[in-house]
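Encode chain A's predicted structure.
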Amino acid sequence: MSESNICTTVNYNTKKINNIVKEVCKIKEKLNNQCSFTIDNTSDTPEPSGRYSLENNTIAIGFNSGIKKQKKCGISIGSNAGSETQGENSIAIGSNAGNNIQRENSVAIGNQAGYDLQDNNSIAIGNQSGKNEQGSLTISIGYQAGYDIQKENSIAIGNCSGQMNQDTNSIAIGNCSGQNN
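Encoded structure for chain A:
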């Protein structure tokens, strides 16, 4: 594909998305601003993202994003982001971020961040940060920080910090700190 074809495709897709957004805004006004918005890059229609149980004021952009039980005010952007049960006011950005059960008021940003069971009020930022069973009120920032079983009220900051079985009420700051608790 030549450079001019790429630019034409990008411009065409941008125009197409702008038209979709305009239509969604018109519908939103008619529905008293109770609206959800989905975009999927696999077809001309907004499916399959947001296919099942999409609640009010949600955004799902990407293949299979927000596909099942996306609760109100949830945002999922990326392939499979927030795809299986995303709680109210939660944000999943990145491929497979918040993929399987992301509970209320949680944030997952990065590839597979908060991937499987991210509990309430938790934050996972970085590739595979908080990937498996991130407890409530936890923070993990960095590559594989809080990767596997980060328990409640814990903080892991730094690559691989608190990586395996970080205990309740603990803090691990620095590269590989508290890696195998």
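The first strand starts at residue 37 and ends at 39.
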